[in-house]
Amino acid sequence: MIDFDKIPDIDIPAEDAQWLTCFTEGDGWLTYDSTNDKFMVGYEQKDPQVLKSIRTLLSPWSKGSMFPVSWGGWRLQYSAKYFTYGLMQLFSRHVITAHWSKLLNTPKHEPTYPGIAGFWDAEGHSSPSTADNVHMYLAIYFGQKEREVLDDIKALLRAGSVSVLTKSGTVVNIKGRTVVVDGDTHHLCVTTKVNSPLISALLQYSHDTVRKQKLLANIKEVEKWPTTLKAIKEFIRQRDVKNDEV
User: Most buried of 56, 98, 206, 222 (most Cβ within 10 A)?
Assistant: First the structure.
């Protein structure tokens, strides 16, 4: 029997709550331990930095347990019975995927920019893009099995395209484990300018310093690209000459 008075109110800023919820949806897990009648929430990452950020954020209520795992990464796990109920209550206020909405038996919500940053920290990356070989932009990618949430993010941003990244049945290596993909996985690609609201949000709300540093490096790469057509042609000519010399 649950003593509801023991469930903590995990009172963190709304932006952090949205980020954490969507990071959990993107790269976390929720399981039920029937032996001890409790839920467990956990994460695995190659770089422990973002897990340390989560641990710091939640430390007033629980430190959880953090340890290395066999594939070379790190796991952060919360298993204190009433704390995990508090986490689930927190997630229920911000969840945006159909899968986690079903897990928590709660309606899903519209994406927010802090939440998008959480998804990007979990399953995203960035790169310079010269699709037309004339202008350079930033390409921001989000990966996810569930297409619906990517369509929702696309609707908020009013930009991007969603496509199948990995077909169902494909054999892939995930965190040191060979896995056969069950169902298609998708990615959303958003091509944007360096001063767009999306880039501002990722720089402001991302908790993953490695991913953010890569984004800043890509921004510098884009900013080197000339803006006038004449200058672009000369830039491309000089680049091609250097490539021929190599």
Answer: 206
